[in-house]
């Protein structure tokens, strides 16, 4: 039976990857891509899908309750996948208001509209509201601490993670209070195609190609678990199709790396690619590896971020054991696929740098 999905934040990094993934895996389903097209929402991310049967784009804000409700009604939506969020920690430190508005008020707007559409009639409609969240709601881990698990208490340390924690609690409350059929997933750091260039990996990649400094916070020892974005989409698919209503599932990559080692690996992979392909030096003459240097020469240590959490790690045993999920990519293979995509899509990332 075909489904009708409303995907919020569908023109953003993870949302766009999910839309492409779901379209490949479930071509019979209708997809309604809903996005406000703020700075990180790029319609080009989903341009190849527009005009296809069963794909629709709605340019609107999730805080617009009336528009959300009208969209649910117009397209007979039975599955809502909620990616839309302000997500950059640095931006949340300098301007937290937008994070409260989108992540808290926007999520509540969606929940209210979903409740009205799916539950207000004489008989509840079949539905699922899936909320995509982050491992940052759990706080920071010590070096020898086990990874975050689903029942762990929340200790958010930035305006971003606090706003996501609040949205998680709202989703839980709408399930327990009103009976909304919800699931939640908390993921580790994503990387891959369509990643907005302000984040660590695409920032360093595009800076190397332009011969610009690679800023590394503090001494670069902060540790993150990295998840290739397509693996994240596969995990969400598992939760949507097999997950238990009301449950939370942590989705991780089993890839803990400190920031400096990531930058070193990225530099070394780029050095190797330039050495193997002389044509890259012609395309990117400002890269140090174009003239026999090393990308590592661009590394610059900068003042640490305020309140910078030291380590995140995911314990993904629940989704592995309950739903049979495990990531397909190692960090090395995922990074290689990411580099391939950025080299093949220079016309996508160049305009975003300005």
Keywords:
single chain; 354 residues; alpha/beta; Rossmann fold; seven-stranded parallel sheet; three-stranded mixed sheet; 12 helices; 41% helix; EC 4.2.1.46; dTDP-glucose 4,6-dehydratase; NAD
Describe what this molecule looks like in 3D.
One of its GO terms (molecular function) is dTDP-glucose 4,6-dehydratase activity. Its EC number is 4.2.1.46. This protein has 354 residues and is α/β, with parallel strands linked by helices. It has a domain at 4-195 and 225-255 and 307-330: Rossmann fold. 41% of the residues lie in helices and 16% in strands. It has twelve helices and twelve strands. The protein has a seven-stranded parallel beta sheet with strand order 3-2-1-4-5-6-10, with helices on both faces. A three-stranded mixed beta sheet has the order 7-9-11. The chain has a two-stranded parallel sheet with strand order 8-12. α1 (13-25) links the parallel β1 (4-8) and β2 (30-35). α2 crosses α4 and α4 packs parallel to α5 (159-178). The longest helix is centred in the first third of the chain and has 23 residues, at 97-119. The chain is globular. The termini are far apart. The model has no long low-confidence stretch (mean pLDDT 94).
Summarize the structure.
With 354 residues, this protein is α/β, with parallel strands linked by helices. The protein is 41% helix and 16% strand.
The second-level CATH architecture of the domain at 4-195 and 225-255 and 307-330 is 3-Layer(aba) Sandwich
First and last CA, distance: 45 Å
Broad structural category: alpha/beta
CATH H-level superfamily title of the domain at 4-195 and 225-255 and 307-330: NAD(P)-binding Rossmann-like Domain
Main sheet: strands, sense, barrel = 7 strands, parallel
Strands in their spatial order, largest beta sheet: 3-2-1-4-5-6-10
Element string (H = helix, E = strand): EHEEHEHHEHEEHEEHEEHHEHHH
State the low-pLDDT regions, or none. none
**The CATH topology of the domain at 4-195 and 225-255 and 307-330:** Rossmann fold
Global morphology: globular
Chain-averaged pLDDT: 94
Family: Belongs to the NAD(P)-dependent epimerase/dehydratase family. dTDP-glucose dehydratase subfamily.
Enzyme class: lyase
Keywords: Lyase, NAD
Cofactor: NAD(+)
């Amino acid at each position: 039976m075909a489904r009708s999905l409303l995907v919020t934040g569908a023109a953003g990094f993870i949302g766009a990857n999910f839309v492409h993934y779901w379209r490949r895996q479930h071509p019979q389903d209708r997809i309604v891509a809903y996005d406000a097209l703020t700075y990180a929402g790029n319609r080009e991310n989903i341009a190849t899908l527009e005009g296809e049967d069963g794909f629709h784009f709605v340019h609107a804000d999730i805080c617009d309750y009336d528009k959300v409700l009208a969209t649910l009604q117009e397209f007979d939506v039975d599955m809502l996948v909620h990616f839309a969020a302000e997500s950059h920690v640095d931006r949340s430190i300098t301007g937290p208001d937008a994070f409260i508005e989108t992540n808290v008020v926007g999520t509540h707007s969606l929940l209210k509209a979903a409740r009205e559409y799916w539950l207000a009639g004489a008989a509840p409609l079949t539905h699922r509201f899936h909320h995509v969240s982050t491992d940052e709601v759990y706080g920071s881990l010590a070096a020898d601490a086990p990874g975050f698990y689903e029942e762990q208490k929340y200790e958010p340390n930035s305006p971003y993670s606090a706003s996501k924690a609040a949205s998680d609690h709202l989703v839980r409350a709408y399930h327990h209070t009103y009976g909304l059929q919800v699931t939640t997933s908390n993921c580790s750091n994503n990387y891959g195609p369509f990643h907005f260039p302000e984040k660590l990996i695409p920032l360093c990649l595009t800076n190397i190609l332009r011969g610009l400094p690679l800023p590394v916070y503090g001494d670069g020892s902060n540790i993150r678990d990295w998840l290739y974005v397509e693996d994240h989409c596969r995990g969400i698919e598992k939760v949507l199709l097999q997950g238990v209503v009301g449950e939370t599932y942590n989705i991780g990559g089993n890839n803990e790396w400190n920031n400096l080692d990531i930058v070193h690996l990225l530099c070394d992979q780029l050095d190797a690619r330039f050495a193997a392909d002389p044509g890259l030096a012609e395309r990117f003459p400002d890269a140090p590896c174009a003239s026999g240097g090393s990308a590592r020469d661009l590394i610059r240590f900068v003042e640490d971020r305020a309140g910078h959490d030291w380590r995140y790690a995911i314990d993904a045993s629940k989704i592995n054991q309950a739903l049979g999920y495990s990531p397909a990519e190692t960090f090395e293979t995922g990074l290689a696929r990411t580099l391939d995509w950025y080299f093949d899509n220079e016309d996508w990332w160049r305009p975003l740098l300005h």
